[in-house]
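Folded chain entry
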Amino acid sequence: MPVDSKISRRDFIKLGSVIGSGFAIGFNLSFSATNRNSNFSPDTFINILDNDTIILSVSKAEMGQGVWTSLPMLIAEEMDADWDKVKVVQTSKDSFMGTGGSMSIKGYGWEKMRKSGAIAKYMLIEAAALKWMVSPTECEAKKSTIMHRKSGKNATFGSLVKEASKIKMPKKVRLKKASQFSILGKDMLRTDSKIKVDGSASFAMDFNLKGTLYAMVERPKYFGAKYKSSNADRIRKQLGIIDIFEIPSGLAVVGKNTWSVIKARKRLKIDWEKKHNPINADSDIYNKHLMNLLDGKSSTVKKEGKPSKYLSKSDKIFKAEYYLPFQTHAAMEPCNCVVNVTDKACEIWAGTQNPANAISRAANVTGFDEGRINLNLTFLGGGFGRKSFNDFIEDGVHISKKIKSPIKLIYSREDDIKHGFARPSSLHQLTADLENNRMNVWKHVVVSPDPLTGNALNEYGADLPGIAKWAVNIGVIKNKLRNTMVADGASEIPYKFSNKLIKASPFDTDVPLGFWRAVFNSQNAFANECFIDEVADKLKIDPIKFRLKYLDDNSRPSIVISKAAKEARWNSSLKKGHYQGFAYHYSFGTHVAQIAEISIDSDYNILVHKVTSAVDCGLTVNPMTIRAQIQGSIVFGLGATTKSEMTVNNGRVNESNFDDYQVLRIDEMPQIDVHIIQNNEDPGGVGEPGLPPIAPAIANAVFSATGKRIRKLPIRPKDLSS
């Protein structure tokens, strides 16, 4: 069906013209009412050069998830462009540039990017038809060429740029059917692969301006503490040090090179004015607080049937509790930026998931309007939600403004772990009524602070969208938001239990919180899928058969579960000492089922040999990217399942580096088989949905191997040896 282009002639004409040797088209496909500047800020650029090169600008941050490839594929498909002639560049010219929540394709690109390509093709066809004095309906596009079917005339996109710039904007465009795709659905090599392999890719750390100084920030030892005094006057005299001064987040150390800054920072002795810490800023006391809240009042998020009635009368109640710790993001690239504040403008080079917010924060610090803030968005060495918080960029702007010089700010690994924004620790209580040997009631109570309002607006530096700030002043809305947040992944389970009750008990904490890969789906999936395995065992039913029993035949969940079971040869003979565990979860519009094959060595270490994953993310854009994202999610999740735990003591983080906050090592990498289920449903996300099932799949495999139920992460050897 024709789709409204939703692009005005007024907005279009500002870029719909010949620029240099090409034709630049900018499309503002949404958010037009909230543009930061009066100047037109398009969501999509298409620049067609007269040599037939097509330059597609991507505003989403490329942090390894493949948006530099998948988003241009959407445009190129609808343009019928020659993919070999497509080049991709990064832009920060966008009205909405946030990258996260697995939304780049699902919520941003699928329709918008395709419209852009379709409109560009329409204008090129109209230009060719006008040139040849034929009907546009007699013309078609193929591999960057417009052809007239009757006469055989043809013209390349590049040769039509001048004429195309004069064509009137269409009111409607027709998008392709899946059966017509020639680019989408095919494995495409990443457009950023070559430059990352040969070293020419640019990260913020790679930029050096003339006269650049180097900076680090010594932050408070305790959550919420303030700078009081130090020996900075003496340390300031150290060779290579330019200055040491206070900024809102701590004490900035600026020098001629990084080594000088590191040495000076180690010699600092600082008195911090310690803030009184509430009871939940210490892991042991915090965990007791979780237990207390579990027995207290909670809010109903979802209710189906009459769960309370059944539970009050049943003699066969089964209950279990599951705990997940604080965890940090631990991206391979710690936060860093290059900033140059002059009297006239502020220029920033940084990898951030939230460029619009970075610009806003820089404007607040400098006093400049946002038009004088120039953000150069670079590649990110991983983000996972951490780099949506622009505290490091704000630090850099403060320092450059004070020192009146370009600076390169670097967070050490220790800075990143101790002063990041953690995934909340959470406690889950699940209850089932098993009267008559069936699941009659499913009840899930979640106790956790939430990263949206749990401490997002306090002095620890988290900066979230305006809706969070607005909601905090409206109690009812705030409570609804945070209840929905902590129940994400709990309230959407597809199993057709007749009676369901999902409850949430969010609270505030002094531990800085942030969005972590898959957000609350990572916690709730662990509790859900471990518990359903336990129930199946109680009822002496195969755990996969039990799940299928409560799903419609040929539904997307049942298909993806059956596919994983088939490919992993579930219930078939395994190598001696090997065991399997299963889990399924739906999140971000995508269904994922995983089977983990493990063994336990003599020291009670879990050895993961193979993970089989079946994925239904709707219509596939780039299967190669889907497989890579699922593999990456599993690796991330394996570390969180068996190694990673962040603890706090008396208002400070105990862990500091990869020796005590461990992640998966390369020699621990299992074989990962990813099986993509093809269909024509609108695409779901793929950056996060692969993470939630892996922890319960491992935990359920451990039960098969040892008979021990895992209800707490991470799984340590001591948990299996006792």
